[in-house]
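Students often ask why we bother predicting the structure of a whole assembly rather than each chain alone. The short answer is interfaces. A chain on its own may look different once its partners are present, and contacts between molecules only exist in the joint model. In this exercise we take three input lines together and write out one structure for the complete complex. Read the inputs first and try to guess which parts will touch.
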Amino acid sequence: MRRPLRPDHLAAALDGKPFTAVRRRGKYLLLDTSGGSLLVHLGMSGRFAFSNRVVGRARHTHCVLLLESGQELRFVDPRRFGLMVWLAPGAEAEDASLSRLGVDPLEGDLGRHLPALFKARRSPVKSLLLDQRLVAGIGNIYATEALWMAGIRPTRHGRNVSLERLDALSHSVVSVLRAAIEQGGTTLRDFISADGSSGYFAVRLQAYGREGRPCRRCERPLRNAVIAGRATAFCIHCQR
DNA sequence: CCAGTATCCTGCAGGC
DNA sequence: TGCCTGCAGGATACTG
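Now the answer. The structure tokens for the assembled complex follow.
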């Protein structure tokens, strides 16, 4: 039996409760109800899909919420990295995944926090950006983009990034995230959003996935490095 | 304590 | 055409 992505008691917990709000914390979604919240992580391939009940269910549908409207809200996740957790009233404050999250670039003042977070850290700055306990919500694509934009080499140790450049980095992070959200996310192969549309940020990627191709600033070919186990394209000339 | 790596999982791209 | 291999991603357990 494969690891289920939703808890057994979810149906009983949710039954009849209206959804009251949708929130986000880092990469987690919280679907609030009148009594408790559904905590969701989309992993890398997870998505929600609204569907008329007549429409056949896609493969890899792990959860189906039947809404009052008669529509179904389906959680589909082919690669199974996603997760659904039921948080009973009061459980949110104690949830380990949520309580570990660091500063959210779109909520808090990233520029104010980065110096203390990166000070004395020997890890590559790329690893630090990906560490959700420090900064919440950045994945491999947007870390790669933000570092290119800020002109910082991904391998540089956190403690060796000047205050001035940390400031530039925090602006790049916020700017990349905002632009990506505005474009509806990044579609690489198979990402689509709940209404079935794809994200258009891919066409605006400056560095991610462009190793070997010319840097959009200096035309020199981008290099590739594996940092924190993830591919990282960067420009050896523009990023130092 | 800290940094780096293996693991989970599936679809797809590329090579032969 | 079809098989095989490797890669992609986020969080976490594990190793050094």
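Check your guess against this: Chain A has a mean pLDDT of 88.
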